[in-house]
């Protein structure tokens, strides 16, 4: 393991270790001088395709909810372009030599939206709540192996870990790791389901989750130059065609995401800028590895061998994506391991199914949420591709809210949908380790767990790459879930919207950097300051 010297610890610079060039072990706040050119003021109208039903920042689950939480709250760190970590509420951080203790220093003068100060005590209370199973936060197993969080003084927080962890600053940028007031946690944490008390760039004005959410600039935000906008309105458009039409007509300014068919339409529209970025976003077919028939890995592999992945990219992703190889690590990740793409082999699939005790095939019901629509498209494609191998699959589509309540993390055979995570460790720990927050497959493979745990304690890039390669190979061999396709992220904006770029993470939006150009219509700029 590379050592972290006392000089490096004390310096607080962003240089970090050469072994971790993509994510520095120490951090320092950047200057804000480069932001002065952006125009201030105006109203941005952004569309989403489903309700932001959960406003509680520690419990958000889907992209529109992540968007609203990011507008209203801040974390200690945040993700910049290229998956690099940068300061948010913390102005600097550094580990000890063992990577088991990390010290974070907050910016001076931080305040919550209600005017109360944001201090190290609030950070401690927040992470204590996240790590409490009663809070039911997805962040519980995704913010790193945290043993204890303590306040050294009003601005200094110490994280003690159960094991060495090189990625902690990245993990603390997780979508649910938003800092909330200690007094709210102590008195009524559930009140954050109805109101918002954050330190984010915007303050909540109104919350109608199925229709419209409105926020306005926070004048006490830690960067006095940002946000540039006066106001952001988040509008719910369940119909993709109507949503695209609203952007083309100018009723909205920015679409959070769009489907391939609408993307092609938007590319040709005057005044619209179509956006695209390769990502690790994927659909997966989750199989309950603790229940028949999927408790037999031969059944899982037989299903994987029945799928034409190249065809799936065209059918489900509309050509805007790359084939998947049954691991969640796409070429967009730092520790992606390239290996031959699994090809469809129906004869071998039938043979494996027969060996598992299903010589006459097997009857299954695959459940797909109606959001996004690509879930059902994937399910239908797999139904047809797997039929010759002996899989008789009935596809059942249900409303997304019903799916979340009745199927997600409970079902035996269903289609999941996930954004790219910041690191390989993050996606493995979110979905596939035995203690994963969303352990949908119940694969619970101890060898896999050990590889992930060992990799997170290394700073040497070569050693980490070798461990993650073994983890990916093990997943590819045992197929806890079928991952046949990765999606490029697609979105669109009006050409007067400036400073917005699609982030490959999928749940990072950075609207505090967005401004409206001189060509913006008066209806958007009449509040310009």
Automatic annotation (TrEMBL):
<dbReference type="InterPro" id="IPR039424">
    <property type="entry name" value="SBP_5"/>
</dbReference>
<dbReference type="InterPro" id="IPR006311">
    <property type="entry name" value="TAT_signal"/>
</dbReference>
<feature type="signal peptide">
    <location>
        <begin position="1"/>
        <end position="33"/>
    </location>
</feature>
<keyword id="KW-0732">Signal</keyword>
<protein>
    <submittedName>
        <fullName>ABC transporter substrate-binding protein</fullName>
    </submittedName>
</protein>
<dbReference type="Pfam" id="PF00496">
    <property type="entry name" value="SBP_bac_5"/>
</dbReference>
<dbReference type="InterPro" id="IPR030678">
    <property type="entry name" value="Peptide/Ni-bd"/>
</dbReference>
<dbReference type="InterPro" id="IPR000914">
    <property type="entry name" value="SBP_5_dom"/>
</dbReference>
<comment type="similarity">
    <text>Belongs to the bacterial solute-binding protein 5 family.</text>
</comment>
<feature type="domain" description="Solute-binding protein family 5">
    <location>
        <begin position="84"/>
        <end position="433"/>
    </location>
</feature>
């Amino acid at each position: 393991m590379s050592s972290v010297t006392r000089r490096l610890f004390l310096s607080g610079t962003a240089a970090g270790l050469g072994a971790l060039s993509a994510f520095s072990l120490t951090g320092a706040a950047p200057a804000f001088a480069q932001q002065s050119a952006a125009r201030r003021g105006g109203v941005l109208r952004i569309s989403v395709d489903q309700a932001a039903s959960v406003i509680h920042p520690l419990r958000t689950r889907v992209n529109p909810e992540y968007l609203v939480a990011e507008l209203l709250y801040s974390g200690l760190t945040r993700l910049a372009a290229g998956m690099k970590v940068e300061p948010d509420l913390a102005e600097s951080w550094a580990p000890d030599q063992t990577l088991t203790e990390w010290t974070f220093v907050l910016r001076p003068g931080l305040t919550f939206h209600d005017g109360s100060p944001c201090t190290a005590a609030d950070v401690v209370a927040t992470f204590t709540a996240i790590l409490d199973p009663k809070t039911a936060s997805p962040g519980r197993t995704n913010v790193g192996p945290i043993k204890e969080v303590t306040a050294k003084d009003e601005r200094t927080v110490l994280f003690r870990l159960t094991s060495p962890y090189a990625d902690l600053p990245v993990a603390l940028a997780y979508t649910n790791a938003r800092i909330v007031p200690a007094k709210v946690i102590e008195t009524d944490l559930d009140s954050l389901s109805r109101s918002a008390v954050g330190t984010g760039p915007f303050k909540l004005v109104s919350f109608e989750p199925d229709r419209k959410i409105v926020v306005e600039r926070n004048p006490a935000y830690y960067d006095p130059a940002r946000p540039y906008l006066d106001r952001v309105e988040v509008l719910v458009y369940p119909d993709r065609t109507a949503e695209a039409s609203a952007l083309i007509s100018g009723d909205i300014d920015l679409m959070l995401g769009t489907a391939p068919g609408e993307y092609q339409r938007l590319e040709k529209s005057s005044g619209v800028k179509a956006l695209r970025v390769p990502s690790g976003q994927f659909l997966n077919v989750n199989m309950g590895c603790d229940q028949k028939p999927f408790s037999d890995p031969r059944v899982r592999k037989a299903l994987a061998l029945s799928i034409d992945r190249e065809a799936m990219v065209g059918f489900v992703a509309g050509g805007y994506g790359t084939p998947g190889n049954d691991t969640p690590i796409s070429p967009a990740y730092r520790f992606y391991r390239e290996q031959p793409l699994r090809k469809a082999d129906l004869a071998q699939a039938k043979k494996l199914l027969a060996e598992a005790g299903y010589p006459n095939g097997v009857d299954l019901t695959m459940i797909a949420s109606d959001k996004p629509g690509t879930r059902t498209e994937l399910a239908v494609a797999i139904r047809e591709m797997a039929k010759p191998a002996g899989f008789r699959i009935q596809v059942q589509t249900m409303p997304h809210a019903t799916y979340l309540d009745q199927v997600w993390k409970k079902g035996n055979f269903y289609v999941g949908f996930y954004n790219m995570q910041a690191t390989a460790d993050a996606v493995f720990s979110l979905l596939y380790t035995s203690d994963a927050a969303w352990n949908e497959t119940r694969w619970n493979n101890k060898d896999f767990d050990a590889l992930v745990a060992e990799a997170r304690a290394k700073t040497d890039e070569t050693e980490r790459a070798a461990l993650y390669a073994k983890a990916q190979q093990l997943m590819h061999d045992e197929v806890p879930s079928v991952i046949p396709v990765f999606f490029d992220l697609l979105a669109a904006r009006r050409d007067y919207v400036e400073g917005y770029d699609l982030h490959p993470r999928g749940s990072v939006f950075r609207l505090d950097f967005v401004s409206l150009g001189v060509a913006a219509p008066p209806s958007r700029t009449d509040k310009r300051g």
